[in-house]
Write a structure and sequence with these properties.
Layout (H helix, E strand, L loop, with lengths): L1 H26 L8 E2 L12 E7 L4 H5 L1 H9 L1 H4 L2 E6 L4 H6 L7 E6 L2 E5 L5 H9 L18 H26 L4 H30 L5 H83 L6 H30 L1
Parallel strand pairs: 1-3, 2-3
Antiparallel strand pairs: 2-4, 4-5
Helix pairs in contact: 9-10
Length: 335
């Protein structure tokens, strides 16, 4: 009886001890992570001191593979005199836009507000050597508009945060409420149009408030000042046109005078030629008359009076015909 009773008692005691040990282990706090989550409200902490940041997403397999290495690196942060942080791009889209993160996981090194992109494998040994050997000094820093602290990247952060809120709202419509996706798209299109019209109305109101109309006296003076300028321009154009017309008229007159002088010279030459021809013809006629008179003296009885009268008449007609032809030629040349 005694041995049979001891076995259940020992078993119950063992189970009680095991349960108590399990409760003690459960009561022990989990090991606290040394990685500091970064948000839009506390990201400015990286502007002071030396930091290493990791951008990740919970669904990213590559990010999950480097989680343990990142935790080990954070545990040794005090030895390396560096702070370690992480950013969830799903919860903080604004920070992913500020650092312009396009691939995951993404690592950044910050030293007194100067940022550099770390492109290593993300394992503990390589991260440790990157800090101890100061390999980050050979990496080109993100300066100018590329710096996360610049005004440009602040605007980019705003755009990414708005897109993240729209994405969360779309998931709320489609997953939580069960609305079809196309209805959600229609809602966002209408909201975009209404927002654009509202912003346009605000700009019009602002312009009307800050626009100061000119008084009538100043406006009239401006008009009067502008009118003489236009009149002067018109007068200048008219003067230029008149000068052109005068120059063209003078050229035409000069050309007409030259043509008339040439015609007069040609007419004088033709008259001189006509006079010479008339003199020549008159001399020829005189010679012919003399010849006829001599022939009449020599041949008094052999030639009849009719023949003697006919010959001078024929020669006179020939001379007149030649003079007429010459005058008609001169008239044709003159025309």
């Amino acid at each position: 009886m005694t041995g049979g009773f001891c076995v259940p008692v020992l078993l119950a005691a063992w189970l009680a001890a095991a349960a108590a040990e399990g409760l003690e282990q459960a009561a022990l706090p989990a090991e606290e992570s040394r990685v500091q989550p970064m948000t839009a409200s506390n990201w400015t902490l990286v502007m002071e001191g030396e930091w290493m940041l990791k951008f990740y997403a919970p669904w990213c397999p590559s990010c999950q593979q480097t989680d343990s290495e990142w935790e080990t690196f954070a545990k040794n942060g005090e030895t390396l005199q560096i702070s370690v942080g992480k950013v969830d791009v799903i919860q903080e889209p604004g920070l992913s836009g500020r650092f312009f993160v396009t691939t995951l996981p993404a690592f950044f090194h910050a030293k007194d507000g100067i940022f550099r992109r770390y492109r290593g494998p993300g394992i503990y040994e390589d991260l440790q050597n990157y800090i101890l050997e100061k390999k980050w000094q050979s990496v080109e820093p993100l300066t100018g508009w590329k710096s996360p602290a610049s005004l440009t990247m602040s605007g980019m952060a705003g755009l990414f945060s708005i897109s993240g809120k729209i994405w969360h709202l779309h998931n709320y419509f489609t997953v939580t409420l069960g609305i079809p996706a196309w209805c959600s798209y229609v809602f966002f299109v209408i909201a975009t149009l209404v927002f654009g019209l509202f912003m346009g109305l605000i700009l019009v109101v602002i312009s009307e408030c800050f626009y100061v109309p000119l008084p009538r006296a100043s406006s009239e003076r401006c008009e009067q000042e502008q009118r003489p300028e236009g009149a002067q321009g018109a007068e200048q154009l008219q003067d230029a046109e008149e000068e052109k017309d005068d120059s063209n008229e003078e050229e035409n007159k000069d050309s007409l005078v030259d043509d008339e002088e040439e015609k007069e010279d040609l007419g004088d030459e033709d008259e001189a030629e006509d006079d010479e021809e008339e003199d020549n013809l008159a001399g020829i006629m005189d010679e012919e008359r003399c010849d006829t008179n001599e022939q009449g003296v020599v041949k008094e009885g052999s030639v009849s009076p009719k023949d003697d009268e006919a010959h001078p008449a024929d020669t006179q007609e020939v001379v007149e015909d030649s003079l007429r032809q010459r005058k008609s030629q001169n008239a044709n040349k003159g025309s």
